[in-house]
Amino acid sequence: MQKHILRIACSDEKGLIYRISNVLFENNFNIDRNDEFVDSEKNLFFMRTEFSGDCDVQNLKNILQEILPEDAKINLTQNKVKNVVILVTKEHHCLSDLLIRNEFNEMNFNVLSVIGNYDILKDLTGKFDIPFHYIPAENISREEHQQKIAEILEQYDFDYLVLAKFMRILTPEFVKKFKHKIINIHHSFLPAFIGANPYKQAHERGVKMIGATSHFVTDDLDDGPIIYQDIIKVNHAQNAKDLAKLGKEVEKKVLAEALKLVFNDKVFIDDNKTVIFE
Predict the structure, then answer these.
(1) Does 146 have pLDDT greater than 80?
(2) CA-CA distance, 57 to 64, in Å (whole number)?
(3) Residue 257 maps to which CATH number?
(4) Does 150 have pLDDT greater than 60?
(5) Per-residue three-class SS string for 153-209
(6) Which one of 7, 34, 185, 203 has the fewest CB atoms closer than 10 angstroms to its CB?
């Protein structure tokens, strides 16, 4: 029996859950799980439903559109494996974690290729029989470099781009081209310590905890909708290098947890925030 995920975002009004559930019932579907949330400040309704049964996707979407508010956004899919391209620079910890998870099918994703502006991680990627594209950024503009990346991406039918410590600022044109499809890991508990050298900033500030944040990429540096965050406690005896070493462990965990949520269609983007059904 087919398994489906229905996601709806629209203006809130009375009876939405009843109407949606009734459509599924009348079409002989079985609801396996249902989650909903109302943002009362914006009067917005969010619903994620897992259901079973043979489904004519377009027909069901048409029926739902008739009984929902005009602004309704309806996403209806099967829980398919997400195809991913990973962008990297020099650091291996996030990439290696994702490659191992991919190798052993630990997450709902398939790594198609890795693109790097250095070739340092080429051999690591090759151990998993995944193509590595080396696109150096020296002596060319940011726009030229990212155009070269975009040309490589045309070879792949991917769902998401994952920045696994890709230490390059993306141009507005690149971000716009792949809107809501680029996921980053930032070595800080945002909005604290934005930009470069966050562990140095944290050490100088004498923080008692450090963290990491995974978020969708927007034109505003490190300010896109947050998907997942976590922290660990630290103390005054640890220097900036110690914090950076500990931070790598948090970064791996946070990126993986964020990707699990996104790849299982549990994340709604609401302006610069997210609604997540865990």
Answers:
(1) yes
(2) 11
(3) 3.40.50.170
(4) yes
(5) HCCCCCCEEEECCCCCCCCHHHHHHCCCCEEEEECCCCCCCCCCCHHHHHHHHCCCE
(6) 34
Secondary structure (3-state) at 105: coil
Question: Among 35, 39, 56, 222, which one carries the catalytic annotation?
Answer: 222
- Total tally of structural domains belonging to the chain: 2
Query: What is the spatial order of strands in the sheet that 82-88 belongs to?
Result: 132-134, 109-116, 82-88, 160-163, 182-186, 209-216, 226-233
User: What is the span of the domain harbouring residue 252?
Assistant: 82-276
On the question of pLDDT at 191 being above 60, the answer is no
Under 8 Å between Cβ of 152 and 133: yes
116: its two tokens: 């790097």
3-state secondary structure (DSSP) of residue 267 = strand
> Quick one: pLDDT at residue 192?
64
Q: What is the pTM of this model?
A: 0.92
> Does 30 share its domain with 150?
no
The verdict on 139 and 110 lying in the same domain is yes
User: Mind listing the pLDDT tens digit for each residue in 220-258?
Assistant: 767 799 999 998 888 887 887 887 788 899 999 999 999
- Check if 222 is active-site: yes
CATH number at 23 reads 3.30.70.260
Question: In this structure, are 35 and 125 located in the same domain?
Answer: no
Number of continuous H segments (helices) and E segments (strands) in the chain: 8, 13
